[in-house]
Design goal:
- Helices cover about 45% and strands about 10% of the residues.
- By secondary structure, it is α/β, with parallel strands linked by helices.
- α1 packs across α4 and α8 packs parallel to α13.
- The chain has 15 helices and eleven strands.
- It starts with a helix and ends in a 6-residue tail after the last helix.
């Protein structure tokens, strides 16, 4: 009987899912039909825009609003490049933007809209984009009308979220909170029992919870290959409780997380599973935290664009280290040779063809297994971060030599990759000092 009920439930889910898919297809079809006049008008519009290019350049592109990290960092880097006059046209120009169909965070959208960026409706600008691409097949030159052609921050290349010009330290954030939003954020924290002058940290551990929730949609198909980046929140309890002992509140961030953060300490808050979680508070906490602890995932780029330091505890891919923030600290996941179970050294990670891998299958193919750092190593890193930020940390001569040695070997191996675009600018971040002291044979 129970088996029969289970089968019936399964078929009901399929039926329900099928109806949803059908309705979405009908809506999409109607939308496309309504777009036909816009596309027809776009043809002469694009031709005119191309003709006036020698005197005035009109460019456009889509902001990657579907992924919070790209929506934050790509856009911020574009603004910084614009202010620094890097990759900008030498003539008079205007840049127009539109959003993807899905906007991951409405508060972030609101802040970008009032930042000075010209963000037009998708139904208006997307047809221009596509018509221009189509015409470009027959008449080259359309690429000059795409912002990403010159601006690396929006190019969608390997360099898309990397601050290769060290611009974040040169410019202030291009988005901010209104006075009403500042009061709102403080009020919510106060109502939750967080004193106004309290210091707090954001904790982000990427897991498969979001993908599992959307397993009936395209998300699983598109993003499950990045499961090599996932982590276990249980390994962070020791570090979180240590920070609580040091006077911090710890907010565990995330949406639709796989499992709860289990701690009896009242200062360790599983915000990801609370009703106060919202688009607004996600951005507010990321912008106001003292620092962020992260396995390297989209949300930490909110902290990044507000110039907050990040303690990366499990950074992969290894060749993509975020090096621009002088207060950030880094650990990578342990790379293990599956044949002999030995940990790969820095150079061996590169020679094993996984330093730039964005696919779990590539690690399997090259017989490399990734392991998270132990709770103690994670705790050591966050202690180092706290000590450095509070000016209590003193690097020994050995520490300085180990940092120099690590980054020299790292840089040498990056150059061997012969990449067409740079991976970083001037290296400001530091690798975990205690880790380097205890793993000197790894630095080869």
């Amino acid at each position: 009987m129970m088996i029969l009920q289970s089968i019936n439930k399964h078929f009901e889910q399929i039926k329900s899912g099928g109806i949803i898919v059908f309705v979405k297809k009908v809506i999409s079809s109607i939308y496309l039909i309504l777009q036909i006049p816009i596309y027809l008008i776009s043809i002469p519009t694009v031709i005119i825009i191309r003709l006036v290019r020698p005197w005035f350049l009109i460019r456009w592109n889509v902001l990657n609003s579907g992924r919070i990290g790209h929506f934050a960092k790509n856009t911020e880097l574009y603004c910084c490049e614009r202010d620094a006059k890097i990759n900008s046209p030498s003539q008079r120009y205007i840049d127009l933007f539109y959003l993807k169909k899905y906007v991951c965070n409405k508060q972030l959208e609101k802040m970008w809209r009032r930042s000075g960026l010209i963000i037009l409706p998708r139904w208006l600008l997307h047809p221009l984009f596509r018509v221009n691409r189509f015409i470009n097949i027959f008449v080259p030159g359309g690429i000059y009308h795409e912002v990403g052609y010159l601006c690396g921050a929006l190019k969608g290349s390997v360099n898309s979220v990397l601050d290769v010009h060290n611009l974040l330290e040169r410019f202030q954030p291009h988005i901010n909170f209104s006075d009403d939003e500042e009061r709102k954020g403080k009020r919510i924290l106060n109502d939750f029992g967080i004193p106004e002058d309290a210091k707090f940290v954001c904790l982000l551990v990427r897991d498969s919870g979001y993908l599992d929730r959307h397993k009936e949609s395209e998300h699983l198909e598109r993003w499950s290959y990045q499961s090599f980046r996932d982590g276990d929140i249980d390994k962070y309890v020791l570090a979180a409780e240590e920070l609580a002992r040091r006077g911090y509140y710890v907010f565990r961030m995330g949406g639709n997380v796989l499992k709860p953060l289990k701690s009896s300490n009242p200062k360790v808050i599983d915000y990801a599973n609370l009703k106060i979680r919202s688009d607004f508070m996600d951005i507010y906490l990321g912008a106001k935290c003292r620092f962020c602890i992260s396995t390297y995932s989209g949300f930490d780029l909110i902290c990044d664009i507000f110039r907050k330091p990040i303690a990366f505890t499990a950074f992969v891919p290894f060749a993509r280290l975020e090096t621009h923030n002088k207060e950030s600290l880094i650990l990578t996941k342990r790379h293990i040779n599956k044949r002999n179970q030995k940990e790969l050294t820095v150079s061996e990670i590169f020679s094993s063809n996984v330093a730039l891998s964005w696919d779990t299958n590539e690690f399997k193919k090259n017989e490399v297994e990734l392991e998270e750092n132990s709770p103690k190593k994670i705790k050591d890193l966050v202690i180092e971060m706290d000590e450095r930020l509070n000016k209590r940390w003193k690097d020994t001569k050995e520490d300085l030599l180990l940092q120099k040695r690590f980054w020299s070997i790292y840089d040498k191996n990056i150059k061997k990759l012969n990449l067409k675009v740079p991976m970083y600018g001037k290296i400001k971040a530091q690798f975990g000092a205690k880790f380097l002291r205890e793993n000197q044979n790894w630095i080869k």
